[in-house]
Amino acid sequence: MNHLLLIRFSALGDILMTVPVIKALAQRYPEMKITVVSRPFVGSVMERLPDNVHFVGVNPRNYPGMSGLGRLYRELSALKPTHVCDLHDVLRTKYLRLRFKLSGTPVSHIIKDRKARKEFLKSETKTQQETSFERYVKAIRRLGFDLTLPHVSGNKHDGEVTKIGIAPFAAHEGKIYPLELMEKVVGLLSERGVKVYLFGAGDKEKTLMEEWASRYDNAESVVGTLGNMANELDLIETLDAMLTMDSGNMHLASLTATPVYSIWGATHPLGGFLGWGQTMDRCIQRDMPCRPCSIFGNKPCKFGNYPCLKDIKPEEIVKRICE
Known about the structure:
The protein is of the alpha/beta class. The protein is 36% helix and 14% strand. The chain has 13 helices and eleven strands.
């Protein structure tokens, strides 16, 4: 029996983008054992996949230095995979796949094509770049497995929007809609009688979301109350819509049937990282000569204040979602 080991340690959005690929693979090969190696906190999401998918939670900090990587290799090797696919392609995973290759195990890895990404940023006309989903599929195909992703189109509202989730945070400033403007979005939705659930993580985000919830009758913070990502998915599935940044929460919400609206600033939805099944008509953005200025949103704005984000009006966002 084939046993495929898939490795992806970060970042959250990239890990979640493996989920539709793994699901399609597990359904295509129900007799094959698939082991996913990733950060422990995504385990609850991976457990929702078919029964032939198994999860191994690994915190890389517990395996420091070459000796730590050697120990991690021995632990993964003990699982006796017949094939190994590196969906991350960083120094840590390059070492692991090299050890497996030297042991005679067939290996493959994702090809990121950084040149194409640089050309995309420079190009005046933006065209759809190869998505991470497609890159993952190609890496798996190179091991000899036949895999085609199902076509998925954006989900539609079923009537009036009465419940919405808002995840206003992202990893980088260039991907975060100004919080003072997002609070206005919360206020406008609350005035319409829409129930707003506020998402986030960590103490600072929890404090701010609780402050917003205290100021608006129809707002509720769920930061730190749901336990794990699977429970977050359960809540998102009950909502009429989800509003996110280009963030891990966009990718999490995209795993449900709930329509997802996303706000884009320094990055661009054609860059290859739009959520699973999402469509351009739900991407809220400004066409500006300076954007996208980054593939990942981690570069400082040359104007200093990200006009690509601050020029989007709260009223426009609410109208797009509700009307």
